[in-house]
Write a structure and sequence with these properties.
Helices cover 42% and strands 24% of the residues. The protein is of the alpha+beta class. The protein has a 3-stranded antiparallel sheet.
Length: 72
């Protein structure tokens, strides 16, 4: 079955992606860190940002999980 990914977080700070990815993992949601290996020294990550994606079927739960965790 093909996954249809949607971006749920875009940021210029890759540590924010790692934190969100860990929170989603704790909730049992698989996520994907796009552009993880882009060298921010060349400016690409600064311009476009790092992206965290999940399967569209888990989008709502992922957004709710991150919103809940950010309020703790």
């Amino acid at each position: 079955m093909e996954k249809h990914l949607v971006t749920i977080l875009t940021t210029h700070l890759n540590h924010q992606i790692h934190i969100a990815k860990s929170k989603l993992e704790e909730a049992g949601i698989e996520s994907y860190f796009l552009d993880e290996h882009i060298d921010s020294n060349i400016g690409t990550a600064f311009v476009q940002g790092y992206k965290l994606q999940v399967d569209v079927a888990h989008e709502k739960k992922a957004l709710e999980t991150l919103a809940y965790r950010n309020n703790e």
